[in-house]
Write a structure and sequence with these properties.
By secondary structure, this protein is an alpha+beta fold. 40% of the residues lie in helices and 17% in strands. It contains 8 helices and 8 strands; from the N terminus they run αααββαααββαβββαβ. The chain has a 6-stranded antiparallel sheet with strand order 3-8-4-5-6-7. Helix 1 crosses helix 2 and helix 4 crosses helix 5.
Length: 229
């Protein structure tokens, strides 16, 4: 689909807009990502953000309005979803076929997603039998950009006695992810909230037949599919 590859900086910019755009108010059809948010996310200077936004507006990927921020066009959204698909399929391949640990794959995929061909990505997809989720539980868009949507809740927000299953890890910090896994939190593990300390204190949970305690900040990165009582 995108064999005439754009530069890595362009692809990273488009993907960053997509991620930040999804954090905006979904009820506002014209909600825009600020240039300051992109400056922080990409760790680049403000003039570079403006220059890139103007360039990508010219080629139809971005709708940039001075003082109001940016939104992806349909073309830009398609590119972002293609990049996310590439990244997540590569992560899953690294874990399932090459023996990588989950906390090791993000940075590898960040590099590889810009360099391998679409044919290689589709070969990975076929090898893995059209997977729906990557090793972190993130949904993998299909070739048309569609992906499975679930109602998930941060472990940190769940009331006492809530039961569910661990469905997604949203941190990209490899040390935090390894800490989470070391405490016994793995995908599809049954979880129940037993107790919580006030003022964003630690949370006591039941994992299978075991009890463990997790900090509030880490619990914010663990998403749970709640079981209906």
């Amino acid at each position: 689909m995108y064999e005439d590859r754009l530069s890595e900086s362009v692809e990273n910019f488009v993907k960053a807009v997509y991620v930040l755009q999804n954090d905006l108010d979904v009820t506002d059809d014209d909600a825009r990502v600020s240039t300051n948010a992109l400056k922080a996310a990409l760790d680049i200077k403000a003039p570079s953000v403006t220059d890139m936004a103007q360039r990508l507006t010219d080629n139809g990927l971005i709708d940039y309005r001075k003082y109001r921020g940016v939104r992806l066009t349909d073309k830009g959204t398609a590119l972002a979803l293609n990049l996310i698909r590439r990244h997540r399929l590569i992560e899953l391949y690294l874990v399932q076929e090459l023996g990588y640990e989950i906390h090791e794959v993000h940075q590898e995929a960040e590099i590889l997603e810009h360099s391998v061909s679409d044919r290689f990505i589709e070969a990975i997809n076929a090898k893995l039998s059209n997977p729906e989720f990557d090793p972190h539980g993130d949904p993998i868009p299909d070739a048309d950009g569609a992906f499975t949507q679930r109602e998930l809740h941060p472990l940190s927000d769940l009331p006492i006695a809530t039961r569910g299953r661990i469905s997604r890890f949203i941190t990209t910090d490899s040390d935090m992810l390894q800490h989470t896994l070391d405490r016994g939190f793995i995908l599809d593990q049954a979880v129940e909230i037993l107790a919580r300390d006030p003022f964003q204190g630690p949370i006591t949970v039941k994992l299978g037949n075991d009890e463990t305690v997790i900090g509030h900040i880490v619990a914010e990165t663990i998403l749970v599919e709640v079981h209906e009582n």
